[in-house]
UniProtKB/TrEMBL annotation:
Signal peptide: none
Keyword Cell membrane attached: no
UniProt xrefs under Pfam families: RCC1_2 (PF13540)
InterPro entries per record: MitoProcess-Associated, RCC1/BLIP-II, Reg_chr_condens
Key words of the record: Membrane, Transmembrane, Transmembrane helix
Origin: domain of life: Eukaryota
A biological-process GO annotation: mitochondrial respiratory chain complex III assembly
Membrane-spanning intervals of the chain: 93-111
A single cellular component GO annotation: mitochondrial inner membrane
Protein name: Protein FMP25, mitochondrial
RCC repeat extents: 389-450
Amino acid sequence: MMNVNLLRTTVLRSRSIVFSSRCLTSSPLILNKDSKLTSQKYDEAQLMSAKLNEQPYYAKRNVDEYYEREEISDRPATAAELQRHKRIEALKGLLAGIAIVAGIIGSFTAYQKWPAIQSWWNKQDTDRFEQPKKFKKEIELPILTDRNDSSVPGLYIWGDNLQYIVSSDKSVKELRNPIRHPWFDNKLLKFVTLGEYSALAIDINGDLIQWGKHFNGDSTPKYTIKGENLKIARISNGIIFALNGNNEILKIAENESIQNNTEGLKRRNWLLVSSNKKFNKLSTEELDKDEKIVDLQTGKYHLLALTNKGKVYTTSTGLSLPKKSFGQYGIPENSQFGQPPSQDKLHEVTLLNQEVSKTFKGKIDHVEQRIINKIATGDYHSLALDNNGEVFSFGKNTYGQLGHPVSYNSEIIGYPKKIELIAKHIKRDQFAKIIDINAGGETSFCTVSPIEMHKLIKSTNKQLNEITNEDEFTVGFGNNLKGQIGSGHYVHAQFDPVKVKELTKFEDFNETTNQMERVKIAKWSTGKDHTFIKLENKDVLYFGGNDFGQLGNGKKNRIARPTSPPALIEPSFVKETYDDLTFANRLQLNDNQEIVAGETASAIFYTSKR
């Protein structure tokens, strides 16, 4: 028992000594006047030990006390503070814009230089790397069944054969190269039209030749109308409109069975024997007695006719009246708000044939006749060029083919409206005189010859027509999704006339002047989606859609710029012919050769010219 008490006393003393040492080490010491250490007056450890040893510890200081917060004021910001804030936000926007532009430029540069970046990144050993050889693709020559060469008159044709137009072999879907049609060998032709469902040709005697699926379901051409001395023939909505030697417009059914069952005109021969013809005549009762038709153009459902007096007439086409009008007739009563005009006669386009003359003060003085020199039509639109060099358009404007801005109110223009936007391509002291127009499908073209204003005032119309201008250029507008305009771009809708710059770059050496001179356009042929141009030096250019091989280059790629097509393939050609450096592989036509662009096909035919 004594030992236990002694042990307890020893433990308590040791604890007291340890606790006192802790207090001495943890508590601050106070110096007295004699610089001697004295103990602290109170023991903090002893005061807090009960809470620290027996109770859980919780922090009693508020978290907000660790931060010094400014009091939030409801006062409005001062002008200086607002200005400072605006500057900061503007700086942020500027930096963000710079970052975006830099990112776009950097991405585009990286895309353009990606092969070089890859080469630099991979750091390949160029000594071991062997550059692969570029093998030139061998030219595949088509099999020629007709052994006649291009010196023999006939018909070269190519493109879509779904309607049995370009080949006698119905199993052939398309021809991508110009191939001779054996039926036309040694035949001279006046005119050729390649329609959507059939084709026609007029021979040197003025007789009509037809072939195609919609004609009789056969691919073999056949004579149908003889003895009418036809000059021009075009197809629209199942009807052939042909201009004969008497300047009459004949209406001929495109289909052979309908044609044979037609109760047409009654004609008497020189023996006074009457017979029924397989066609009717379009009434021209609105024309003057001495007025004659000199040209006609057709769209999908309309026809335009031009007379020798510079007047334009129109009518709807088809066996029955078309269901809808798109304003392509140029007559307000027959716009999109009305019905198409009757198809049994010609109707005068009064607003085009007449113009209002005003005084210097802008008041109406009198009405006079406007002289029209040329007409052109697309699928659902029309163009007219007058003798003053101004162009008027009317019809459907969905793709800007009228040369006017596209909007809800101008999607269809049912009356002739002057195209003003062409003037933006010339100087202020010049007049944009239009000298030629062409149209096809949903695209239009105008050839412009800028004239100085002082020459325009001093010269007569005859003198203006004789002026030659080296600054001529061509503009196009409308649907350009397949490169139909030839501007080098693919645009869905182009209402603003754009220059076809490539047409101004072709030059040839003039032996008379001993210098290079610009080569101008001689003839123009526009189909639905593609165009052929014959230059004055007999070279040919083409551009546009090529979905069916209608460009005749052996491929189906679209071409957005005027380019020279390859030469006609002769029977004597072999693969080595194209390796000869002296061989000029470009298409050139003779004076008696003409090229025509159709709906989805193209052709070259021979005329009687020499």
